[in-house]
């Protein structure tokens, strides 16, 4: 495997930055960015081994979205079993009174928490 990849952004070679300029005299070009493999130690599954930046990544996705989705199409919704717990607790809100001062007013609040359940217990 090569130690470098060319950026896969379809328009990488058209972006006008100094880092893309190659050649000399009247034979200058803007060239696709060369990326050192492993430059971010596999961060985000190594996606940045193939794209020089987020703009090039998004250009690639926009151009190839149909093909990318065809690799792993989602034909039905997935579900994650959960428990929803509601608990009441004493809270406070602040109100302005007629003297233009604010005071703490207690009220009964409800806290809703989504909890994971163990999928192995059926
Ligand atoms: Zn690029």
Describe what you observe in this structure.
- It is a single chain.
- The protein is 15% helix and 33% strand.
- The protein has one helix at residues 54-71; strands at 4-6, 21-22, 29-30, 34-36, 82-96, 102-116.
- It is elongated.
- A hairpin with a 5-residue loop joins strand 5 (82-96) and strand 6.
- With 122 residues, it is α+β, with helices and mostly antiparallel strands.
- Bound molecules: zinc ion (ZN).
- The site of zinc ion (ZN) has 8 residues, from loops.
Query: Globular, elongated, flat, extended or rod-shaped: what is the shape?
Result: elongated
Q: Mean pLDDT across all residues, rounded?
A: 94
Please give the alpha-carbon distance between the first and last residues. 44 Å
Largest β sheet strand count, sense and barrel closure: 2 strands, antiparallel
Strand content: 25-35%
Share of helical residues: 10-25%
Helices and strands, in N-to-C order? EEEEHEE
| Number of DSSP E strands | 6
Give the bound compounds.
Answer: zinc ion
C-alpha-based Rg, rounded: 27 Å
Could you name the ranges where pLDDT drops below 50 across 5 or more consecutive residues?
Answer: none
Count of alpha and pi helical runs = 1
Class inferred from helices and paired strands: alpha+beta
Order of adjacent strands in the largest pleated sheet:
1-4
């Amino acid at each position: 495997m090569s130690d470098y990849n060319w950026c896969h952004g379809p328009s990488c070679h058209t972006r006008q930055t100094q880092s893309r300029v190659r050649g000399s005299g009247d034979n200058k070009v803007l060239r696709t960015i060369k990326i050192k493999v492993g430059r971010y130690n596999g961060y985000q599954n190594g996606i940045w081994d193939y794209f020089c930046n987020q703009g090039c990544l998004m250009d690639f996705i926009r151009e190839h979205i149909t093909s990318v989705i065809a690799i792993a199409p989602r034909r039905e919704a997935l579900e994650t079993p959960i428990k929803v717990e509601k608990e009441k607790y004493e809270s406070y809100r602040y109100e302005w009174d007629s003297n233009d001062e604010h005071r703490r007013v207690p009220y009964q609040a409800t806290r809703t928490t989504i909890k994971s359940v163990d999928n192995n217990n059926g």
